[in-house]
Amino acid sequence: MKNESLLSIWIEAKHIIEPLCEDLPVLTDEPGDWRVETPSGRPFITLRIQKSHVGLYVLPMYYHPHIRPRSMDAYLKGKSTFRFVRTKPLPVEGIQDIIERARAMIGTY
């Protein structure tokens, strides 16, 4: 884990995302690193503590950028990565929305 002080943000984000992915295979489940894949074995999402942020990597969004809710623009870094830091509250509804939209793309990327 690159920064233990971000563990509370990571845990909060995981608690938001995990129920939306409960039927998908979990590849890694360690403190600070959680990876989920599709039933066919493609990467789906990764939630990982980095040096200065908690990153949410949403692979379907890389191929289908139109699924990104505009409410998440302030957190977007790159094509399919969201960064969460201590200074901003987690956008619970935005996270739920992006995971639901990404699930609809399973099998199309």
Structure notes:
- It is a single chain.
- The chain is α+β, with helices and mostly antiparallel strands and 109 residues long.
- The N and C termini lie far apart (29 Å).
- It has 3 helices and 6 strands.
- The mean pLDDT is 97.
- A 6-stranded antiparallel β-sheet has the order 1-2-3-4-6-5.
- The longest helix is centred in the C-terminal third of the chain and has 13 residues, at 92-104.
- Helices cover 27% and strands 26% of the residues.
- β5 (76-77) and β6 form a beta hairpin.
- It has one domain: 2-Layer Sandwich (Metal Transport, Frataxin, Chain A), CATH 3.30.920.
Please outline what is shown here.
The chain is α+β, with helices and mostly antiparallel strands.
**H/E element string?**
HEEEEHEEH
The biggest sheet amounts to:
6 strands, antiparallel
Q: Which strand order do you get reading across the main beta sheet?
A: 1-2-3-4-6-5
Structural class: alpha+beta
The CATH level-2 architecture is identified as 2-Layer Sandwich
Structural Rg: 13 Å
CATH homologous superfamily title: NADH-quinone oxidoreductase, subunit 15
**Count of individual beta strands:** 6
Oligomeric grouping of the chains: single chain
Q: Classify the helix fraction into a percent range.
A: 25-40%
Count of discrete structural domains: 1
The unreliable regions are none
Which percent range describes the beta-strand content?
Answer: 25-35%
Shape: globular
Q: What's the number of helices?
A: 3
Provide mean pLDDT, rounded: 97
CATH topology: Metal Transport, Frataxin, Chain A
Distance between the termini: 29 Å
CATH domain class name: Alpha Beta
